[in-house]
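Hi support team,

I submitted a single chain yesterday and got back a structure, but I'm not sure I'm reading the token output correctly. Could someone confirm the output below corresponds to the sequence I sent? I've pasted both exactly as they appear in my results page.

Thanks,
R.
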Amino acid sequence: MSPNPGSGTVPPVAPAASRGRLPDRSPAPATARWSGAPATWAHRHPAGRAVSLAVGLGALGGALALGGRRDRLLWFCAVAPDSALLLGIAGAPTWNRMPSYAVRPYNVLHSPAVPAVLLTAAALTGRRRLAVAGLAWLGHIGWDRACGYGPRDAAGYVTR
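Hi R., thanks for writing in. Yes, this is the structure output for that exact sequence:
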């Protein structure tokens, strides 16, 4: 009678190449829901960080040129995306990890869609204040990406 490997009577033997090593448990690359392409955010690669820095500084420079140094809306929108950090700072288990209830607001406020909506509204209406807000918001996101901070995963860590 030959033992059936699927019956549980004989333990399966690992291939020779993997004996003595732990199995590879690295996560599969995240994919963007809308395109199926790898979610390669600019905060992951040095070249992407350089581009993000250029975009961030350019956007902040444009906001300063339109609004001036003393424009309250500019400075409010330049720090507004981090209001989600204040939401979760008291319940944060560690400095690098955000509580799960603050992850969604953080990701929404740090999404390029927010300044895109503001800048589109500014282009359609011709309102200078909307352009200042959108550029300041985009500058914040670009600066964060240049520093290595991107969207957070469900556990609250910056995605890698």
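A quick pointer for reading it: The chain has six helices and no strands. Let us know if anything else looks off.

Best,
Support desk
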